[in-house]
Design goal:
InterPro entries: Redoxin, Thioredoxin-like_sf, Thioredoxin_domain, Thioredoxin_ResA/DsbE_sf. This protein is an alpha+beta fold. The chain has a single domain, classed as Glutaredoxin (3-Layer(aba) Sandwich), CATH 3.40.30. The protein has 4 helices and 9 strands, in the order βββββαβαβαββα. The strands form 2 sheets. It has a 7-stranded mixed beta sheet with strand order 1-2-9-8-5-6-7, covered by helices on one side.
Length: about 170
């Protein structure tokens, strides 16, 4: 499952892959509109670590991990980490807002009913073969890690800590 830089990657048995800084490929170019009609452009978040979470409203594992993701988003906000959801189904704006309200989600979610966000990920070697899926982008916007399926809190915090520790080495 190498992909992003097409080189060596660390893969775990749980669908988690980490890419060393020199194997991360090009930055992800991804933008879209939320259910509240606000524009989100991941490029505007360069210089920070970004967590992308692919989900949809009726996805049982998405519902289980949502409170965990929000807690981590809160815990890591002071470290400059930003979260952006990507709603991959043709959920109505009302369904997206209801999900966000039910799980007290405060970070934005792009509505990807046309598939352009998933295409942007695919162009950087990330195929959303499972939902949910969580992608960690480094400070340069490159794929540093991904977790296919429901991500455990300790797994995501470990990925974030690893990515943050390499954040200052922007030249890599």
């Amino acid at each position: 499952m190498p992909a992003p830089g097409q080189g060596a990657a660390r893969t775990s048995a749980y669908g988690v892959v980490q890419y060393p800084p020199d194997q991360r490929g090009e930055a992800v170019e991804l933008a879209g509109t939320t259910a509240e009609c606000e524009r989100v452009d991941v490029a505007a978040l360069r210089g920070t670590v970004v967590v992308l979470n692919v989900w949809y409203a009726d996805c049982p594992p998405c519902r289980v991990e949502a409170p965990v993701l929000q807690q981590i988003a809160d815990d890591y906000a002071d470290k400059g980490v930003h979260f952006v959801g990507i709603n991959t189904r043709n959920d109505s704006a009302e369904a997206v807002r209801a999900f966000q309200q039910t799980f007290a989600i405060t970070y934005p979610s792009i509505r990807d009913s046309d598939g352009s966000a998933l295409l942007a990920l695919r162009q950087r070697g990330v195929s959303a073969s499972a939902t949910p899926m969580t992608v960690v982008l480094d400070a340069r916007g490159r794929v540093a890690a991904l977790a296919a399926g429901q991500v455990e809190g300790s797994t995501l915090t470990g990925l974030l800590d690893d990515t943050l520790s390499s954040k200052l080495s922007v030249s890599q």
